[in-house]
UniProtKB/TrEMBL annotation:
Name used for this protein in its record: Peptidase S41
Amino acid composition bias (Basic and acidic residues), ranges on this chain: 402-435, 467-479
Domain PDZ stretches: 88-156
Keyword Hydrolase applies: yes
MF annotations from Gene Ontology: endopeptidase activity; serine-type peptidase activity
Gene Ontology CC: outer membrane-bounded periplasmic space
Keyword Membrane: no
A GO BP annotation: signal transduction
Keywords assigned by UniProt, alphabetized: Hydrolase, Protease, Serine protease, Signal
Amino acid sequence: MTGKFKVAGLLAVGAVAGALTTMQLQAFARNSLSPLPLEELQQLAAVFGMVKSDYVEPVDEKKLISDAISGMVAGLDPHSVYFDKKTLKEFREGTTGKFVGVGIEIGMEDGLVKVVSPIEGSPAFRAGLKPGDLITRIDESAVKGLSMDQAVKKMRGEPNTKVQLTIFRKAENRSFPVTIVREEIRVQSVRAKVIEPGYAWIRVSQFQDRTVDDFARKVDELYKADPNLKGLVLDLRNDPGGLLEGAVALSAAFLPQDVVVVSTNGQIAESRATFKASPEFYVRRGSSDPLRKLPAALKTVPLVVLVNEGSASASEIVAGALQDHKRATIMGAQTFGKGSVQTVRPLSADTALKITTARYYTPAGRSIQAKGIVPDVWLDETAEGNVFAALRMREADLEKHLGGADEKKDEAREKAREEARKKLEELSAKTKEAPKPLPEFGSAEDFPLVQALNQLKGKPVAVSKTQSERKAELDADKR
């Protein structure tokens, strides 16, 4: 694998994460439609007929129609998608946080799948897999050369089926096979711990169905472990977003009752709404308020929110609300900039359309679409500076993003990304190794977390050495 491909592999997760969305799941039928463009529809039918009759080999009619729908929707923006049976199943797994597999959080290292952490109680956990283990083979397939998505698909499957993983454990300098029986896994999207007496860290990696319940449980555990917390770090780095109601609830946990969290605006009446820090805006019908038993101190405890270029959508809603209400200090890097809301509308029992229906606005009326949240305090990824920040894609870099038609390309950002890519490729060519991955979030080597704790303690903060702001965006924020 060349240095270029190694760098691309390291960026794959961030790119995919950045494309994930804030969404509302609802069925919606419109009673009135504007007149259909008959001439264009006749052309579509004519093309369909020609392909059916004249193409070099027979084609599947259903696939042609599915591809036509996919192309129509893909031309709108990066986040509108047609779901066929397979992709709808994968989408539902992502929002529920449930899937069938072995139960590991993974990354990539030297072209291999790295076990970041086995999920507690999962088949992988019971089989003895450890953080840092490298997976070299999945059944008969070598992992080297596979993308992370390809590796994940090979490890997932049907319940009660077996998969054999070949593990290389560096600490013991040995390889060994492990046979694991797949089962349904529930992803924990919230992690938390007391870092030191008086200071705690709580990380939300994605906004799924159970994220708010898990958040409330973790906060309860933190305050039981240390009832006198003097500061809290809410970590939203690389959080690609998810369910809008989760973002509203998480914001409400820290904000006064009934203040505005986010507003939305679009073409149809249902897309024009204001969401407040009140149970009626996030509690599902028939459920109780998951935040009702949170300690009152959570409303006033000094708070730092960590964000980076991978913080998108729902995580940006939370950061924007807490920033506008001056409830927290936002630290890190400028966020992804996905300021749109998607609605999922069923088309049949196993197909659906995810379509952009609104833009969202922070309590102060800011649209962060293609801009992102600018932190109050800029931080680098490491004490030496940034390693991968310039390489990460943001909303403004995506083709057909909302508002993109009248925007000029950010040539300075493109140049910085190309220079950073070349630098990493040259380093890879010299050392024959991929760049050293960043420390795990929440670890003792997590530089931004250390700076967040310094902020809470009133100690000096090592602000960014390589701060890069978009002048046009900052000028727009000042107006």
